[in-house]
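In line with agreed milestones, the collection of sequences with tokenised folds has grown. A representative record is reproduced below.
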Amino acid sequence: MSAVFLFAAAFLASAVEAVEALTIVLAVGITRGFRSAMIGVGAASAALAVVVVTLGPALTVIPIRGLRVVVGGLLLVFGLQWLRKAILRASGYKALHDEDEIYRREAAEAAAAGTQLRGGTDWYAFTVAFKGVLLEGLEVAFIVVTFGSNQGNIPLAAAAAVAAVIVVAVTGVLVRAPLARVPENLMKFSVGLLLTTFGTFWAAEGAGASWPGSDAALLALLAFYTAAAYLLVRLLAARRGPVMETAH
């Protein structure tokens, strides 16, 4: 069961970040050319692979109980942050993430930027694509390393991340447009719930607690957090004001 949760969390988190990275890469690629943008994507992907390969083995030397406390705490920080934003968006307090608007903004900035070629590479396109993929990918790398190390199955977490990136990339190549119709907030909601669930489970185990039903307790935790999040959305929506934050 934990392997299913592991794959689902890594896949969904990677898909969300891949959609956001894809929007940036498409904007600079279509506006300024894909050659330099794809070089930036390749360089960022290599850097992320180094992070996973380096940190994964390093975490294995930490005693499992200590590792679970640390990893559980970090996942709670990440998960609650994702969940908070998803709840605010679902209740109308925060604008939904608009990939079309982000694409238009990135494309306009790319078109207005000056051209600086070095070795046949457009460094604006390279830098923007590299930064976009690296920043979005670091969160994915963190999830892959922490989940995989704690469960002793980094290959499964990495496979889920790679599968998500391939699905998003192939879809982006086929449509050559930002994936605005992807239910991104629902995906972020799901990831936030999964990270918070795992964070609570592992942090408590690392502190010495024993969950009734072992891994089956994950389902109870997930149900509890889902119900609490749904209740918060309903309560916030009922008292929503007219002003929404700008999405970012």
Notes: The longest helix spans residues 2-32.
